[in-house]
Amino acid sequence: MRDAYQEQMAALNKALGDMVDEVGAAMAQATQALLEGDLELAEEVISNHDSVAEKSAEAEDQAFQLLALQAPVAGDLRSVVSGFQLVSEIDRMGALALHVAKVARRRHPAKVLPDEVAGYFEEMGRLAVELAQNARRVLENQDYHDALTLMDDDDAMDDLHRHLFTVMMDREWSHGVAAAVDVTLLGRYYERFADHAVLIARRVVFQATGKTPEQLLEAS
Amino acid sequence: MRDAYQEQMAALNKALGDMVDEVGAAMAQATQALLEGDLELAEEVISNHDSVAEKSAEAEDQAFQLLALQAPVAGDLRSVVSGFQLVSEIDRMGALALHVAKVARRRHPAKVLPDEVAGYFEEMGRLAVELAQNARRVLENQDYHDALTLMDDDDAMDDLHRHLFTVMMDREWSHGVAAAVDVTLLGRYYERFADHAVLIARRVVFQATGKTPEQLLEAS
């Protein structure tokens, strides 16, 4: 029974890891579409989005099967419940990549980003993809030491996000309100994407130890 | 066994309903703080926020107890799992009310909102609170007909949100980029708050019928 549980739980975490991979790739493409004004790429992200929703439904089914057939208890039960919560996080990451692609499409053939903030988004995109890759890794290896290091990557994203506002608030900002609105929303999408990646790591810490990162650091 | 399940599930839905009530009240206060530049009220929302986090943890514990002690199956199992997902939605609504309060505090004693958009936020705030009240009601009565009507209230919020952008994009906008950035973020907070309220109603439809709203409407 416990072997079957272990096997199915590993399969669920693998499926979740694949989903994270997919939303990370979507964010990479959406960022490229945004930076290069590439309409085709934006369309690709948008039309691929349904696949994330399908995989979410499949992963939820897998988790229900696990609950129903293996009737896990204690820590195992918490791990399966985490699985449902992880599906929601990853789903949301996919929606945020979709939002970025939609902004790129809406403004095409105009470029969305003034030159002076393009570099920020290149870096935010790079960080977002890196965070997704890290989230995938800890989902699969269930290594909570590794998961704890993910918390810091989010700080870098928050710094970039803050700097972005400083640039827009500068008197020298000459791109008008419409560009500022786009940049504000886009900045928020990247920041939220990173936030969800960190929440994934938090849940892995909890799955692996039964403790939140704070409880764990307090005890050490 | 089933009686105990019913009783505990009703208690869980009641606890979730109370949480929705609390985040709705927080959004009402945050909106008032925003519109009136009321620092004290903003501070109150901010310092009350911990109570939402505490109640989330308690509701998750209740749901775990239910799973562990009653070992529900089939539809009952889905209802309990929904409970965990509902906690995340409500938690997020609380975070969004907190964000609104923080914007009000950050700009104090300056007013955040130019007069020409204040009316939009008054209405978005009113809608947000109404949506929260409706979400609370359907959580407690588990009436899926009622839950289905909630989907439309969200459209009104989306309309307001779109109009808000039109106002900012207008050549006549004379309040500069900083105000536009604030208004953009605030608009997004209200829109997301409404979105989560609708997601609550969707989950109630699923809890009560085992079908998504789309599946249900297709079948009818």
UniProtKB/TrEMBL annotation, chains A, B:
Gene behind the chain: phoU
InterPro entries: PhoU, PhoU-like_sf, PhoU_dom
UniProt cross-references to SUPFAM superfamilies, sorted A to Z: PhoU-like (SSF109755)
Major site of localization recorded for this protein: cytoplasm
Superkingdom of this protein's organism: Bacteria
Subcellular compartments: Cytoplasm
Residues spanning the signal sequence: none
Assembly notes: Homodimer.
Residues of the PhoU domain: 18-103, 122-204
GO biological-process terms attached to the record: intracellular phosphate ion homeostasis; negative regulation of phosphate metabolic process; phosphate ion transport
GO cellular component, one term: cytoplasm
Known function: Plays a role in the regulation of phosphate uptake.
Keywords recorded for this protein, A-Z: Cytoplasm, Phosphate transport, Transport
Lineage, highest ranks first: Bacteria, Bacillati, Actinomycetota, Actinomycetes, Mycobacteriales
Family, per entry: Belongs to the PhoU family.
Protein name: Phosphate-specific transport system accessory protein PhoU
Residue runs in coiled coils: none
